[in-house]
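BACKBONE GEOMETRY TOKENS
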Amino acid sequence: MYAVLKSVGKQFKVSPGDILKMDKIEGNVGDTISFKDVVAVGNGDKFELGSPAVQGAEVSAKLLHQTRDDKIRVFRKNRRKHFQRTKGHRQYITILKVMTIKSAIGEESFKEPAKKVAPKAETPKKEVAPKVEAPKTEEKKAVKKETTEVKK
């Protein structure tokens, strides 16, 4: 099932479980936001188009994150005038996860897949070989040379 919703002057095609990045919407992390301005809803061979919105259709999403988008660099230049300016801009964005889509066609919601935990296979313990000591070597004593004085 999918829906086309209209928000912040743009239209987004979404399905349950989709991650959506749009301009900033007021709210706190973890809040549920519902969009009632749904332009179209489809489910396989069924399709409903609103004029301007589908009656009774609603898309609800969970607010995951409030952040800023990547920097956009704006470069201005006038030819032959030695005029160049570079500016940067970062747009505030909201990241949402679509949870449910409700309409007259039907209702579909996102279900988290169950995490599969594989049982750990027991590994056989390796037998440790007994330590073999290195053969002891006798310490060699340094032999001192006898010095003789040379007469001149």
